[in-house]
Amino acid sequence: MASVPVSPSLPSFLFFFFLLLSPALSQQQASKSRKERAGSGETGSGSGGGGESSSAAAVVPQLNCSGRWIHIRRLPARFNLDLLTNCSEYDLFYDFCPYLSNHGLGPKTHNRSHSWYRTDPFLLELTFHRRMLEYPCLTQDPGQAAAVYLPYYAAIDSLRYLYGPEVNNSMDHGLELFEFLQENDGWIWGRNSGLDHFLVLARPAWDFSQPPDLDPPIWGTSFLELPEFYNLTALVVEERLWPWQEQAVPYLTSFHPPSGELLDSWINRVEASRRTTLMLFAGGGGVSAQANIRRSIRNECENTSDTFESNGGWYYYSKVCDIVDCANGKCEHDPILYMRPMLQSTFCLQPPGDTPTRRSTFDAIIAGCIPVFFEDQSARTQYRWHLPEEAYGEFAVHIQKEDVVYKGLKILDVLMGISRARVRRMRQKVIELIPRVVYRKHGSSSSKGWKGQKDAFDIAIDGALEKIRSRVKGEVEIGDLSSV
To answer: For residue 316, what pLDDT band results from cuts at 50, 70 and 90?
Structure first.
């Protein structure tokens, strides 16, 4: 099949995106990788695609693509790149055009930065697509593939239903894609009824869970509720309680190291950082009189002394509790505002907001700040691939929000009840998790020093392949893939 032509409406600043994300080029990269690997004497299993790993974090001595081949489905530009041209079209949604640079990582925080960007988490679909082009086991043959990746920017496409002219047609979201999959090489979808297909959604699954027959429609689209896509595997930033279709993967943060050396350098800084604040909340909300966990956090912070006694000795902090006001999205694209305070804090409070999960959870882990959760859905039951559920108590603190809001439990009392020795162990465990929640920078295949570590993308792919394998075989789905 010929490559999809560039849309005439595609502005010049997005033309380079098209060149790198076009399906034709992805297959050319796979072919080039195969030739390079053949020249080095390295071989993979099977035929028709693959290549030397572009992620040094995922490199193994002998690359074995058996059961790991992935085919990137060729989609017209209207399902991905054309959608980026609408980056400033919706008055009720912010203009994300400035954050499309660097293939969705956004502009650097400053010119000398190598790893820090003003990244918009909403662009995970774009950055994931870019990384897929570097996946070492790509194949041009769908029949050989263990999985088929759909480079559909569903969350960006949802804007026209959530904020645009098609707000009353949200039950139709995804039908155009399904029609294309049926009418163009329909056997690819039909051979396993879509069970071997996966995509990425850069919004919580709840935003795609409106019942199609609901009248009048409420918030969200019906993408995940359409029977046509029941068999599709969706990698989302927040899953629902019944995730037969989806699995949560980490939000995009602003940290994207291009090499293992720069990752190690950052980790060294985290380990050496002096923790002068006991607990930190970076976020908005909690300013109304309504009783909720964020209001309780603000009240406790405003009424806590900076000197206190615990465990038979005095601890002195410059601040016992600090708040970084991120209301109205002021921290969204400026990691400097919250990263420095996180580096100085022992515990980072992660109260739920409109939904249970927060990008701040992963910002905190990157800063070596022990996350404090107030409900299981904030992380424990979400990110089982990336944050091992069985080790949850080793790197996180759980405090039931109802105990704080309605029973008067003080967060400070709980945290000060944790011994200093345990705090040190927990922080070390958090630091060990940093490579698992970071999406490294694309195009760093020649980087050295990753020491066999996999990043968030690598773990997501491993998990998706295993989930698809079990679904195709009709097995009970595997809930814990923390070892991948």
So the answer is: low
> CB within 8 A of 278, min separation 6: which ones?
315, 317, 319, 320, 321, 345, 346, 347, 412, 415, 416
How confident is residue 324, by pLDDT bands cut at 50, 70 and 90? very high
Closest by CA to 174, choosing from 71, 97, 245, 87, is 245
Proportion of the chain in helix, strand, coil states, percent, rounded to 5: 40, 10, 50
Helix count and strand count (H, E) for the chain: 17, 12
CA distances from residue 35 to 48, 137, 328 in whole angstroms, order as listed: 12, 13, 50
Q: What are phi and psi of 248, to 5 degrees?
A: -75, 140
What's residue 284's pLDDT?
87
Nearest to 234 by CA among 242, 439, 134: 242
Q: Which residues contact 408 (CB under 8 A, 6 or more apart)?
A: none
**Average pLDDT of span 388-411:** 95
| pLDDT (0 to 100) of residue 484 | 40
- Determine the pLDDT at residue 481: 41
Write down the H helix ranges in 315-419: 336-343, 360-366, 392-395, 401-405, 411-416
> What are the tokens at 365?
């882990």
The reported pLDDT for the residue numbered 367 is 98
Mean pLDDT within 212-219? 80
Between CA 88 and CA 93 the distance in angstroms is 8
Q: Describe the crossing of helices 420-437 and 260-272 by its angle, rounded to 10 degrees.
A: 160
**pLDDT value at position 368?**
98
Tell me how far apart the alpha carbons of residues 361 and 250 are, in angstroms, rounded to a whole number.
9
Task: Give yes or no for residue 344 having a pLDDT over 60.
Answer: yes
- As a whole number of Å, the end-to-end CA separation of the chain is 35
Long-range contacts of 20-26 (CB under 8 A, 24+ apart): 20/103, 20/130, 20/133, 21/80, 21/81, 21/126, 21/129, 21/130, 21/133, 21/151, 23/72, 23/73, 23/74, 23/75, 23/151, 24/74, 25/133, 26/72, 26/132, 26/133, 26/138
- pLDDT per position as a tens digit, 256-292: 999 999 999 999 999 999 999 999 999 988 777 788 9
Span 128-165, pLDDT tens digits: 999 999 999 999 999 999 999 999 999 999 999 998 88
Domains, in order of start, for the chain: 12-248 (no CATH), 267-437 (3.40.50.2000)
Report phi then psi at 414, rounded to 5. Answer: -65, -45
Handedness of CA 215, 216, 219, 221 (dihedral sign): positive
Please answer whether residues 85 and 9 qualify as being in contact, where contact means their C-beta atoms are separated by less than 8 angstroms: yes
On whether the CB atoms of residues 162 and 207 are closer than 8 A, the answer is yes
Give CA–CA dist 317/304, Å, rounded: 12
Question: Which residue reads 């309504």 in tokens?
Answer: 290
